[in-house]
Amino acid sequence: MDDRRDFDRRYFEIVRAWLEMRFRERDEAGCFKAHEPVYGLGRGHTEGHHCRRAIRLHDLLATVKWLGVEGSLLDVGAAEGYFPHLARTALGLDAWASDLSREACLRAAELFGLPAVPANAGALPFPDDAFDVVTIAEVIEHVADPVGTLLELQRVARRFVVFSTEEWREDEALRDHILGARRLENHMERNIYAPSDLPVLFGGRPRVRWAQRFPVDGPEIADEVFDEAALARLLDGRPPSVEGGTIVVVAVGEESIPEGRPSLHDPAIAAAIARNVSTPESRLEVARGAILERIACPLCGGRPRPRPAP
Predict the structure, then answer these.
(1) Could you give the maximum distance between any two Cα atoms of the chain, in Å?
(2) Using the 8-state DSSP alphabet, how is residue 103 labeled?
(3) Per-10-residue mean pLDDT for the chain, 310 residues long?
(4) How many CB atoms lie within 10 A of CB 204?
(5) Are strands 246-251 and 207-211 parallel, antiparallel or unpaired?
(6) How distant, in Å, are the alpha carbons of 159, 226, 296 from that of 118?
(7) In angstroms, rounded to a whole number, what is the distance separating the alpha carbons of residues 295 and 105?
(8) 3-class state of residue 297 by DSSP
(9) CB atoms within 10 A of CB 83
(10) Considering only CA atoms, which of 42, 23, 49 is closest in space to residue 34?
(11) For residue 69, which of 140, 127, 134 has the smallest C-alpha distance?
(12) What is the value of pTM for the model shown?
């Protein structure tokens, strides 16, 4: 057991160091190289697969909107904060970001003015029921303690937890085979999930899930030509999917999950994603002292903690 704890601790430090390096990265033009398409669809200075990322962002935002959340949202593993930024601008939520990487939190504060808190997802510095909804997208597969992490998300959420992961297999035997063949890497997929995991992770709490939508590769969705019109066409056409991803909604409060499903195409959300929300020019020369004050841990005298609704 001590060896396992030691391995997990070392893995945690390796991942954090890698993330700090990643969110300091600039491209050949000297601009911050974003994880999500924060400069607008089809624009540079961003990691690839704009179409895949845009559809995921749309479906997660549509899910939060469908839940009828009005109030606060915490996005865990928020990277440079694009998803909580969209939740604030498109849905009017009081959105917060949290990430293991302090550098990622700096980017969220600098690019979008978000309250951003560097923290381990399994030990969040917030009180119980602090946020109406807590989201975690494409992160839970990387953590050393997925059960503890999801319990922590349920602790700080007042109404709902929403998580998505591409590391999902309906066939549990295939899942076990993939897990057995893993190779140790800096930011590896430590965990792969299957339907039988959900009762372990969430007990008897009400929950729903559906498959992520993945676009079929083609020249019309290449990063350099993908734009708002292409996104609208794909959403209207319900882009084909392949097995490998899921979105799960869990009700952690007293209320039930709504009937039906989220919208497959919300034009307002699609337009918000396609909009150029930041400039390619570097905005990372802001006085670091002021930014660091804004991302201070709320339990250490920094920003005031969000208050649960009465």
Answers:
(1) 54
(2) H
(3) 67 86 87 89 88 93 95 95 95 95 92 91 92 91 81 94 83 69 62 81 90 83 90 81 78 90 93 75 43 44 42
(4) 6
(5) antiparallel
(6) 23, 33, 8
(7) 7
(8) coil
(9) 24
(10) 23
(11) 134
(12) 0.86
